[in-house]
Design a protein that fits this description.
Elements (H helix, E strand, L loop, with lengths): L2 H32 L4 H24 L7 H29 L6 H27 L6
Length: 137
C-alpha cells in the first residue's frame, strides 16, 4: 500500500477512534467514578462498547468494507479489539505498579491516555491486515 492512502486511512481510523475514546471514557467514568465499579471491569465495559461502535464506523467509512459475512468480520474486529484490550489493561496494570499513586483520580486517566495510544497502533494494523484485509485499498 502506498504511503498517502495509508496515512489517510490512519487519519480516518483516528477520527473514528476519537469518537470511540469519548464513548469509552464516558462509560469508564460513569462506571468507575459514579457507580464505583472496579476500574478494570469499568475499563473493559467501556472498551467493548467503544469497539462495537468503532466497528460499524470503520466498516463503512475507514475501510469501506463490502464483506458479505458481517458477523465473521465483526468477530475478527472484536478479536483484534480484545487483544487490544489486553494491551490496554496491561499498560494500565504495569503503569499502576511502576508509578506511585497512578491508580488514583486524575493520574489514572493520564495513564489511560497512554494506554489508548499504545492500543491504537495495534488496533489499526491488526484491523487493516486481518479484519479488513479484503476491503477497498
Amino acid at each position: 500500500m502506498e504511503l498517502k492512502p495509508l496515512i489517510t486511512k490512519f487519519i480516518k481510523f483516528g477520527i473514528v477512534g476519537a469518537s470511540g475514546m469519548v464513548v469509552h471514557f464516558a462509560v469508564l467514568y460513569l462506571l468507575r467514578d459514579v457507580a464505583h465499579i472496579n476500574q478494570f471491569v469499568a475499563n473493559t465495559i467501556g472498551f467493548v462498547t467503544a469497539a462495537t461502535t468503532n466497528y460499524f464506523l470503520n466498516r463503512i467509512w475507514t475501510f469501506r468494507s463490502q464483506e458479505k459475512q458481517v458477523t465473521v468480520e465483526y468477530l475478527k474486529f472484536i478479536l483484534v479489539s480484545l487483544i487490544g484490550l489486553g494491551i490496554n489493561n496491561g499498560t494500565l496494570w504495569v503503569g499502576g505498579r511502576l508509578l506511585p499513586d497512578w491508580n488514583d483520580d486524575w493520574r489514572f486517566y493520564i495513564l489511560w491516555v497512554v494506554a489508548v495510544g499504545v492500543t491504537t497502533l495495534w488496533n489499526f494494523f491488526g484491523n487493516m491486515l486481518f479484519t479488513f484485509k479484503n476491503s477497498k485499498q
